[in-house]
Design brief:
Mean pLDDT: 81
Largest sheet: 8 strands, parallel, barrel
Oligomer: single chain
Strand order of the largest sheet: 1-2-5-6-9-10-11-14
Radius of gyration: 19 Å
Helix content: 25-40%
CATH class: Alpha Beta
Bound molecules: fe (ii) ion
Number of domains: 1
Amino acid sequence: MPSVTTKQQAAVAQMHLGLMSTTSFDGIVAVLKQTLTVPKLPGFEGCRPCLSGLDRPIIRRHRHAWHPLTGGRAKAMRPLPKLGVGLAFQAPLAPMIEAAGDDLDYIEVVPDILWTDRGPTEAPRYIDDAEGLATLLRVARGRPIVAHGIGMSIGSAGHFDRGHVAQVGRWNQQLCFPWHSDHLAWHLAASEGGRMDVGITMPLPRDAATLEMLEPHIREVQARVAAPFLLENSVYYFDIPDGEMDEPTFLNRLCRTSGCGLVLDLHNLHTNARNHGFDAFDLLAELELDHVGELHVAGGMELDGFDLDAHSDTVPDPVWALLERALPRCPNVGGLTFELFGSRFDSVVEERVRRDLQRMKAMWRSAGHGRAAAGSSRPARRAEPRSAGA
Ligand SMILES: [Fe+2]
């Protein structure tokens, strides 16, 4: 039986060959990079909400970030505070967020874009972007800020970046996240005695060995960051063959044994169902929805018959239909987040974005989630932003 490490090395070697698209892997990367490149604005560079794949070089270029090139028992998730409807923060969306009023209850942010990682041998390793953080706090106008990270690579076999986890913990102390999340994926792989950054989020082998590998990583995050921890079902443009279980079984077991919650991204689910030929509603029916702490919706694009999770449009009808089914069945869900890349904001048009947010709010209320008692959805008092981390 090959180890998780061996399977991950094989996946890196095969990723160009296993793609179920007539467009080349590099062609898809090029299209997504175009979408993900955002205008440079004062205080922000390379700002984006959710690494669904393929754009890490963009962030590396803009943020000058360090990347390591060589480099039980069933648990129920505690209900999260009922925040309501949120938007993934992007600098071009800032004016709309400031004017959104009751349409928006919280802001989601990729914290990794607000610091520079100089590498584990540097002191200090992290330089926080004080200007960017101050702008985020101004735009949030006192709304809770939820963290949705991209840098943990929690699924890497034989690698766990405790420095990164500690940095998330420090930011949680400042911003008091109601919860925080990252992606159920990996991008750092073992390579010739060192590590390499694959540059995209990679799917995990769905087997018992992978679950065993993930569990201690999750427990360590739970111990080091004093906020509930969720992982997002990732979009995958190719799959690792010979899995021992299907995706809902894998997710159910992961959440049950680790106590980790789920960010259920319905556009990822829709995209995977279209590209890999399964019924998204069938998967939803098998998923234990009491593990869901947050829902994501977004729009994407089609490229030569292949669907991309490009966060490039408003929410399409099939994703609304999935939301209609899922939302009333997620008793512990705390928030419903819309993801849209800032580079597409002008072409999508603000009015359409606001319409989607209002529709989300109406669905949130009719699903019976309402809102927590006044004040309980507000974060604890935030500390003043610092200019540099340890
Ligand atoms: Fe997402």
